[in-house]
Amino acid sequence: MKGIDTNILVRYLVKDDKKQADMASAYIQKITTAGELCFINIVVLCELVWVLESAYGFHRNEIADVFDKILRTKQFEIESKDVVRHAINNYRSGKADFADYVIGRVNHIKGCDITATFDRSLKRQDGFILLE
Questions:
Q1: From residue 35, how far is each of 1, 15, 30, 32, 72 by CA, in Å?
Q2: Sign of the CA dihedral 95, 96, 97, 100?
Q3: What would the pLDDT profile of 64-76 be if each residue is shown by its tens digit?
Q4: Is the dihedral of CA 5, 6, 9, 14 positive or negative?
Q5: Which of 77, 81, 90, 91 would bridge with 98, disulfide CB 3.0–4.6 Å?
Q6: Domain ranges of the chain
Q7: What would the DSSP string read from start to end of 43-71?
C-alpha cells in the first residue's frame, strides 16, 4: 500500500494542472496495476475539503458527492471509512466543517458522550455541547 498526499488527490480529482494531474493519475495507475492500493488518511480528507471549498469554490453537496465517489473507488483504501461516511453525512446536511464532524465521530468512538466546542455552527448538533 502507498500513501498519497492531499496535493496528489486534488490534482487527480480536479485536473487543473495538466502536467501534475497526468503525473498523479499515472502514479495511482502504476500502484494499482502492481496490485497495491493508495491509502488516504483522514487528515488528507480534511485538507481536501478545505482546498475544494477555499481554492475551487465547491459547495457542500458537491464535496459530499466527491467523497461518495472516493469511498467507492476500489483503488483507494480510506482510513476509518465508517468515520468518514458518518462525518460526510453530517457535513452534507449540517453547518459545521467536515473536520469538526470527524472530531465528534472519533471522540464518540473513543467513548466520549459529548464534545465541547466554541464553534457556533455545532450548536444543537448531536454529540456536541456549545460553551457559551
A1: 9, 24, 9, 5, 17
A2: negative
A3: 999 999 999 999 9
A4: negative
A5: 91
A6: 2-79, 95-132
A7: HHHHHHHHHHHHTT---HHHHHHHHHHHH
